[in-house]
Amino acid sequence: MLKTRFTELFGVAHPIVQGGMQWVGCAELVSAVANAGALGFLTALTQPTPEALEKEIARTRSMTDKPFGVNLTILPTINPVPYDEYRRVVIEAGIKIVETAGNNPAPHLPAFKEAGIKVIHKCTSVRHAVKAQSIGVDAVSIDGFECAGHPGEDDVPGLILIPAAADKIGIPMIASGGFGDARGLVAALALGADCINMGTRFMATKEAPIHQKIKEAIVANDERSTNLIFRTLHNTARVAKNAVSDEVVAIEKRGATFEDVKSLVAGQRGRRAIETGDVDGGVWSAGMIQGLIHDIPSCEELVTRIVREAEEIIRTKLGHLLAN
Ligand code: NAD
Q: Whose CA is nearest to atom 25 of ligand 1?
């Protein structure tokens, strides 16, 4: 067992998080992650309405009696999102852990705190982590440039970002972006984090509610198989390299507004692609960690393996360095 400030604060067995993942963070995956002793998050905006989120929370509870949370991501969207309604559902459902991401969580924090909810804020820079700490979040998740989804605009990889944040942050810290195995977990702990977050790695598990062909594509892909889209719109997103994301990058190079790429990047199109296994059918998030993903285990197998191998690395490989 690896005991850290994270496992203590959130009451989970292992220092591993499955954070928000649009179209993937549903009951099947979140409950499997929870049952494996890690902390899973339902992605609120994957549910089309706040009422649907309420049902998904109930469905997850029917599949696990372990703790899990809800991710609320606040980024530009094609259609307006009733964030306050999603927040109300989370509180009324009795959820006790929330991951906020994408924007300053301040407008939502008082209501969450009043409801006794622990808030983890996911951010991509030291300054935003410091700000989140100062307004009272319980933990920060710091997302390096390697990550899938939105890495921010500073392009600082985890090897620098995590210790730079650790120097400034007193509350528990989750290292995110580029994690998928025991080596990453031990490295994150050495860099000053208390836990790792994995997204793409959890997509390639038996329980992830996406098509087998997408899981196999992640296994086949290497660390170079991503594209950065929306660079020119200051809403950078790292997604799997495919025909559609290549086209978006080419259009942006010529100079584009969001309208010029909207039909290619629409989340609903990406959702269809990962649900039907049409690898080139739309834009779907994936990180550089694809280069270190070689199988499709169950969540239980994955979490158990990472923790067992991390203990071996610490005890044997690193321990021997001291002994000799
Ligand atoms: P969507 O269909 O509304 O938009 C598709 C993509 O275009 C998203 O990446 C969005 O940020 C971007 N976008 C939309 N309008 C834009 C604009 N005017 N300028 C620049 N970029 C714009 O998105 P969706 O798939 O329905 O997802 C809803 C939201 O949840 C998105 O913001 C998405 O990024 C976010 N989300 C991200 C993660 C993650 O990064 N891991 C997890 C959960 C949710």
A: 267
Strand partners, 118: 97
233 CA from centroid of ligand 1 (Å): 12
* Burial of 175: CB neighbours in 10 Å, binned 0-12, 13-18, 19+: buried
For residue 85, tell me if it sits in a domain: yes
The yes-or-no verdict on residue 324 having pLDDT over 90 is: no
Render pLDDT for 285-318 as a digit per residue (tens, 0 to 9). Answer: 999 999 999 999 999 999 999 999 999 999 999 9
Amino acid 177 reads G
Q: What is the pLDDT of residue 294?
A: 98
User: What percent of the chain is helix, strand and coil (3-state, nearest 5)?
Assistant: 45, 15, 40
Q: How many domains does the chain have?
A: 1
Residue 308 belongs to a domain: no
Report yes or no on 168 lying in a domain: yes
pLDDT digits 0-9 by tens, 238-268: 999 999 999 999 999 999 999 999 999 999 9
| Token pair belonging to 54 | 């309420």
**What lines the ligand 1 site, CB under 6 Å?**
20-22, 43, 45, 73, 75-78, 149-150, 230, 233, 235, 237, 258, 265-267, 285
- Name the residue among 149, 14, 135, 2 with its Cα closest to residue 71: 149
Number of H helices, E strands in the chain: 15, 10
In a domain, 314, yes or no: no
3-state secondary structure of 286: coil
pTM confidence score: 0.96
Report, in angstroms and rounded to the nearest whole number, the Rg of the chain calculated over CA atoms: 19
Q: Would you state the structure tokens that stand for residue 317, as one six-digit string?
A: 């490989």
d(Cα 36, Cα 266) in Å, to the nearest integer? 33
**Residue whose entry in the numeric block shows the structure tokens 């994690």:** 179
Q: Which domain holds residue 64?
A: 5-209
pLDDT value, residue 314: 97
- The partner residues of 237 in beta bridges, in order of sequence, read 229
What CATH number does the domain containing 69 carry? 3.20.20.70
Residue 146, amino acid: E
